[in-house]
Amino acid sequence: MIKLDHVSLKYPGSKTLALNDVNFEIADGEFVFIVGASGSGKTSMLKLLLKELDPTSGKVKVADYDYSKLKRRNIPKVRRKLGVVFQNFRLLKDRTVYENVAFAQRVIETPGRYIRRQVPAMLTLVGLADKYKSYPRQLSGGEQQRVALARALVNKPEILLADEPTGNLDPKNSWEIMRLLEDVNKKGTTVVVVTHNKEIVNMMRKRVITLKKGEIISDEAKGGYIDED
Amino acid sequence: MRISSYFYSIRQGLKNIRRNLLFSLASIGTIVSCLFLFGVFYCVIVNFRTAVSDLENTVTISVFFDEGIEDSNINLIGEQIRMREEVKTVDYISADQAWERYAKERYEDDYEAAMASFAGDNPLKNSASFEITLKDLSAQSEFIRFLKGLHGVRKVSTSEITADGIVALNSVVSYASIGIIVILLLVSVFLISNTITIGITVRKEEIGIMKLIGATNFFVRAPFIVEGVVIGLIGSLLPLIIVYYMYDNIVKYIIGRYAVVSKLFAFVPIGDIFVVLIPVSAAIGIGLGLIGSIITTRKHLKV
Question: What Rg, from alpha-carbon coordinates, does chain A have?
């Protein structure tokens, strides 16, 4: 579950609010798009969910953790319930596909015998079983994003956060990634996709939260992409 | 942390050193020079102190008594001297012993003849004395004041100038070397910190991802702390080896070349020096690595 309760955010030195009194709730198992032009506050919101930033006022609750009461040393605990995918993939360039996915498990100290079992299974799921020895630079953008997705999913997160996951991909690869996200969602993971890909948002008919200048201007159950003008 | 995580941190730490080889070598280099100097100073100081304490044993204070003093009064003075804490040894030299010693020095081989010619008439009959050595030369002046105040004491003879010189030289050498070593230690911490900062910068992306995935602070920091400790450890072992061979060869060279030195002065055996130098150097090296890496990771790796 994700809940933002009257959340406002102001960056130090800035005069305007990056987020202004934002309220919404995302239930377990939902698939939600967060859309808006650049500067609308999408990325700030994602940073709040990951507790990279703290709100100026209001409350953020993710996976039963109230961030305002969360102790520093417990931050890793929350993050282990979240999987994240980025627009620019953020893979480790000096490691193979296998190592990139295994890295996510090593970091949270998963025993080696689980790593050896779960990493190949995850690579099969995203369709990259035969490329486990490749390095990121040897892969296409779509393949790299699938590695990033495998890395985000291998720790079985409750919530998957995707920041412009199709931003660097052509339409064919974009759809492949969206199909994978939908599969993951069907298996019970909550999926939150931040995007400005109009075509995808309009085709998938999921819940859409639209942000404009830090405020929610629309929140529809089977919404479409609202043009700025 | 799990055991496999410790191994992972150690592997990553060693990898950091290899990736940043040039800077790692620079850090190791400073620690080596720092601990090398420390080792050399330590060898010099230990030998110097041994020499000083040998000398301290030869710097004696002689106490002479009033003419015609009773033996019981001499015993009383002896008791009072022995009760003082700063006193190391007290020897009673009777007038006859004093005369024999003087004759030996003055007439060398003919001393028996000389003594025979004075038979029954000791020219030094008023020169019975206590010869005293002190534990610590710096207490000498105070102690002499005490002796002069004792009833029945005629004269106290000392070599105070020598004693003051030794005490002063001893502390100048100690303070100067401590100063130089402290400066070198600070330079080492600074360089280790720089090396680790570079390691962190190079791995910024990886660290960012680790944190978002939910790595604990300790897990993120551990490889860098391993890096610092390994740099410190290597930096402490090398100078130990160098100092060991240097000391051995220099001592052999001096004794071989200037045989007279070995009569005046005994070098401290290398084993005695290294019993202290190995643990202290290793502790300083590892300590520098720990301090350098902990302050750096604290500064740069806030979650």
Answer: 18
Contact B157, B64 (CB under 8 A): yes
For residue B35, give the 3-state DSSP assignment.
helix
A109/B214 touch (CB, cutoff 8 Å), yes or no: no
Chain A window 147-206: which residues touch B at a Cβ cutoff of 8 Å?
A: 151, 155
Which residues is A163 bridged to in the sheet? A194
Least Cα distance to B294 among B162, B215, B197 occurs for B197
Residue A218 in contact with residue A226, Cβ under 8 Å? Answer: yes
Q: How does pLDDT run across B28-42, given as a tens digit for each residue?
A: 988 898 888 888 888
Domains of chain A: 2-81+157-220 (3.40.50.300)
pLDDT in tens, B250-301: 988 888 888 776 666 778 888 999 999 999 999 999 998 999 899 988 888 7
Residue A186 C-alpha, separation from nearest chain B C-alpha, in angstroms:
23
Report helix, strand or coil for A109: coil
Q: What is the largest CA-CA distance in chain B?
A: 103
Give the ranges where B86-159 is alpha helix by DSSP (H): 95-107, 111-117, 140-148
Q: Does the beta carbon of B303 lie under 8 angstroms from any beta carbon of chain A?
A: yes
Interface predicted TM-score (ipTM): 0.84
Domains of chain B: 3-55+164-300 (no CATH), 60-158 (3.30.70.3040)
